[in-house]
Design goal:
mainly beta, 12 strands, globular, 174 residues, single chain, 14% helix, 7-stranded antiparallel β-sheet, 3-stranded antiparallel β-sheet
Amino acid sequence: MAPLQPVATEVTPASLREVMSRFATGVVVLTVGGERPHGMTANAFSSVSLDPPTVLCCIGHSAVMHSAMTGAGRFGVSIMGAEQEDVTRYFADKKRPLGPAQFEGIDWLPGPRTGAPLLSGALAWLECEVTQAHEVGDHSVFFGEVLSAVNGAVGDGLLFFEGRFQRTGATSGR
């Protein structure tokens, strides 16, 4: 059987979404604190630099988190474990309450450096200060200097692959 050869096709939002679904990503919940606290599930998140310690996240212009992030200038990141799929889905639901009400019934603590809600049970947490934001198409890329990085629970990671949540299985052999 001959190897599959890529064929050039028109790139549409739907075709790009389908192709990118083949790229497994970790899942985080981004949060901001202050007067207008907000949380959002994201998988467009990455480490950028160790020196200075920097991460990035991409947020759609139409997302509530976009204005929240711009206004707060600081954010928290909870790296979600496989056992937290329900909380992850909650923060992905656009029908959930906004403001402080969205955190009612969610176990969290305010980050000591940013005040952003950090979700209990996460595999790790970061607190960041926005250093740059760049508009790219219908999203902004926010760069954050890492102010704090702490490991949390031990467990399997939560992945997003082929349009659904999956687990890493990293701890099954431990």
